[in-house]
Amino acid sequence: MTDYHIHIGQFDKVYYYADRVFSALKACGVEEVWFSSTTSCIFFKECPALENNPELQAAAPSAKDLYDGIFEEVGNALCAAKETGIKAHALYWCLPDMHKALGLSVENVMKNFPYEGFKIHPFAQRWNLSDSFTVAFAEEIFSYAEKNGKRILIHCGEDAICSPLLFEKQIAGHPGAVVQLAHCRPLKETLYMLKNYPNTFCDTAFAERLEIEKINEAGFPERILYGSDFPVTHYKKIWPESDPTQEELAEFLKDYRNNGGNLYEM
């Protein structure tokens, strides 16, 4: 089984270690994963969101330190995957503000590290596609993905800022880029994208059974990818106060499966 939507790294107050996450998933029958690092959501000094908060700004890492830290973290995760015996593909979590602060290009990032795709979270990073830099950055991502056969995972939701339609122009303009619309939300917009753009897929992370059934009935069963959003699912149900152990994560998955649930259904 392949899980196309998982995470490692810092999530709110706790840290999800890659070896623990991978081991728990493998014990549950997952043999291959596509992952990104939630550590990417930490505010850094140059973030516009911290401009009026000197106390938080002083405590935050610099954009360079955070970038280097994530680089090392994902590298360690890939090593952990090999040791665990699970096949892992790293997705680069794209941060417009970081690229602006550091003058980074998408091509340089991808040449310096074996990322196999991109993660875009327009809600967490407040993507503003009326901003010229952000539009150019998005174009870089889609163009690179199309030319180099890379996947793009996009967080989608009910809010307008994370609608499946947000990047329609880029998806239409780069039909060779494989685009994964996370969460199947909202259903109407997800179906619209699946019907109009053959390069789009959707995943089951936090999706409801009824929505998945409707996508199946609409004729797109082969365009639905299994995604668990683990260990975010663990966090939302357990609300841990300390870093979860491998045993705790494995027990969570085992108990949930034994109770007749699916990893994406919380």
Q: What keyword list fits this structure?
A:
single chain, 11 helices, 266 residues, alpha/beta, 17% strand
Would you mind describing this structure in some detail?
- The structure is a single chain.
- With 266 residues, the protein is of the alpha/beta class.
- The chain has helices spanning 18-27, 54-59, 63-84, 96-102, 106-112, 132-148, 168-173, 187-196, 209-217, 232-238, 246-258; strands at residues 2-11, 14-16, 32-37, 87-93, 117-120, 151-154, 178-181, 200-203, 224-225.
- It has a nine-stranded mixed beta sheet with strand order 2-1-3-4-5-6-7-8-9.
- Helix 1 (18-27) packs parallel to helix 3 (63-84) and helix 1 (18-27) runs parallel beside helix 11 (246-258).
- It is globular, with a radius of gyration of 18 Å.
- The two termini are 20 Å apart.
Outline of this structure?
With 266 residues, the protein is α/β, with parallel strands linked by helices. The protein has eleven helices and nine strands.
Overall average pLDDT: 93
Secondary-structure element order, N to C: EEHEHHEHHEHEHEHEHEHH
- Cα-to-Cα separation, first versus last residue: 20 Å
The low-confidence runs, each spanning 5 or more residues with pLDDT under 50, are none
Give me the count of strands.
9
Number of helices: 11
Note the beta-strand portion. Answer: 15-25%
